[in-house]
Design brief:
Length: 146
Amino acid sequence: MVAHPTDAPALEIRPYRESDEADVVGVWERAGLVSSADDHAGDIREKLTVQRELFLVGIAQGRVVGTVMAGFDGHRGWIHRLAVEPDLQSGGLGRQLLDAAESGLRALGCSKVNLQVRAGNERVVGFYEKLGYVVEDRVSMGKRFA
Ligand SMILES: CC(C)(COP(=O)(O)OP(=O)(O)OC[C@H]1O[C@@H](n2cnc3c(N)ncnc32)[C@H](O)[C@@H]1OP(=O)(O)O)[C@@H](O)C(=O)NCCC(=O)NCCS
């Protein structure tokens, strides 16, 4: 059943702890953000070396139900891995997690935040637009160092 804002559980948002790993990966997988072939442990380990306080989890009814990773590079802020447990989506939890990540970025002096939506996941664009994001005229490029 899809949750509605009025029956959404209360959400506690706090920084990630090492003991959250399995729960966080579970949310990512069930929300369709990652595949089992990805190096989740490596991704998490790397994030914990830089602004680990901006790796947030949402806790409701004693379990991890959402995540967001943010970071400020001195010029732009970035949002990654925003995910809400599928049975709790559309209940306002994604907004709360994104708000918390944005607050953390602003506190570091960040004046603009960027994010990328994977091709095939365009259905989430409406969510971000609702929260003030606009689709920008850019070509996204990347290069792996390892
Ligand atoms: C994207 C995601 C995090 C949004 O979280 P959520 O808890 O479902 O969203 P919320 O309930 O907080 O939505 C906030 C507002 O956006 C609206 N909204 C949500 N999804 C929307 C969509 N696809 N299109 C338009 N509006 C949308 C909601 O109706 C709500 O508006 P309201 O406050 O006026 O009622 C969640 O759907 C998710 O985990 N998706 C799978 C993982 C994913 O794709 N993450 C993004 C990677 S870029």
